[in-house]
Amino acid sequence: MPAATTRTVPYFSYPHVFSSQQQAFLDIFHDVGRRGAFILQYDLEDFEKHLAAFLGAPFAAGVANATDGLLIALRAAGLRSGDEVILSSHTMIATAAAVHFAGGVPVPVECGADHLIDPAAAEAAVTSRTRVLLPTHLNGRTCDMAALESIAVKYSLLIIEDAAQALGSRFRGRCAGSFGCASAISFYPAKVLGCFGDGGAVIVDSLVLHERVRQLRDHGRNHDGEIVSWGLNSRLDNLQAAFLDFQLDSYHLVMERRRRIASLYDEHLRSVSALVLPPPPGSEPDRFDIFQNYEIEADRRDQLKAFLTASGVGTLLPWGGTPVHSLRRLGFTQHLPVTDRLFSRVLMLPINMALSDDDVSYVCDQVRAFYGYSH
Ligand SMILES: *Cc1c(COP(=O)(O)O)cnc(C)c1O
Q1: pTM, rounded to two decimals
Q2: Mutate which of 71, 90, 92, 198 to test ligand 1's pocket (most atoms within 8 Å of Cβ)?
Q3: CB 84 within 8 A of CB 129
Q4: Is 162 in the pocket of ligand 1 (CB under 6 A)?
Q5: CA–CA distance from 373 to each of 14, 269, 312, 368 (Å)?
Q6: Contact at 8 Å (CB) between 235 and 39?
Q7: Can you tell me the mean pLDDT for 212-219?
Q8: CA dist., res. 343 & res. 318, Å (int)
Q9: Which of 80, 112, 250, 256 is positioned for an S-S bond with 118, CB 3.0–4.6 A?
Q10: Looking at residue 167, what is its pLDDT?
């Protein structure tokens, strides 16, 4: 039966990132431009302070993107050549690439029922060469940090977090990115807090690490501008920092809206037995999820995706449908049947600030129609 109303619900709208608050952004551009404040100026310092305060972490440093941020975090923490780093296979290749370029060996492991790294699988992968646990707080949900911290203590491992997707997500009241010795957050436009290009931050728990990160991102320079170590050029543009600082002010509204959309999806789709949905907001006392993505499992996933495309609804397969361990050309040899099975079923529905409640209802109507449910 054709839907009563048809509409287009793109997976993500890049123009909306700018048009949502166009005049305020133009004012910031004028202000920063007139001051010529392009590199390492006070707008960046302000943003770094506000970001650290928001996370309840001691230090934050802007970097060019979260991939660089992870690389810099691993180098700052002293990763040595050949050190093994355990990560979930269900993460962006960027997580593993950062390990590779920091000289380490990425070791992908299975994810659990909530699609995040399975602590038991992580522990089983520990060897004498393991140095770091690198959990990804996927989809805006914080990993089980209690379990991961006890593994880290048991085997004397460092924790470095991929918090690229998880700004403001919490586990037992603490923010993702504030558990390990270092972590990275992304401000790619489609992330929960996005800028107008690439951007990222490295969060650390000590002044020593913070100084190392600041040198690594800026040609190895110290406070006096002297070169004291090898470094990269991986600074967050001052202009992007100014845009981000402005948006951070009202970021609580973004988290609220995303959680609201997740609740609507849950209300409309919970009765569809062919689906597995993420835990709805408020259903778990330890968790505060901020829903970077709304990632479901679906029977007949490929047919559902095609049906939604024909109905004007954009969806995505995570990482183009390929988990890290399946990238055989990069040398991975692991067999991860749980992750393989998940990747035959997983699908991401649209969730973003351009979505209206009616858009969400429309998406749900289409999903329900596909499985033969009434509206
Ligand atoms: C986006 C993302 C990254 C990389 O962030 P960039 O800022 O684009 O470099 C790394 N890990 C995860 C899980 C991501 O989603």
Answers
A1: 0.97
A2: 92
A3: yes
A4: yes
A5: 33, 10, 19, 5
A6: yes
A7: 98
A8: 8
A9: 112
A10: 98
Within 13 Å, how many C-alpha atoms sit on residue 126's CB side? 19
Ligand 1 pocket residue status of 166, Cβ below 6 Å: no
Which of 298, 315, 76 lies closest to 183, judged by CA?
Answer: 76
**What is the tens place of the pLDDT at every residue in 288-315?**
999 999 999 999 999 999 999 999 999 9
Tell me the C-alpha distance between 114 and 91, whole Å: 13
**Any atom of ligand 1 within 6 Å of the Cβ of 65:** yes
Between CA 375 and CA 251 the distance in angstroms is 33
The rounded distance, in Å, linking the Cα atoms of 61 and 296 is: 34
Predicted confidence (pLDDT) per residue in 262-290, tens digit: 999 999 999 999 999 999 999 999 999 99
Q: From the CB of 240, is ligand 1 less than 6 Å away?
A: no
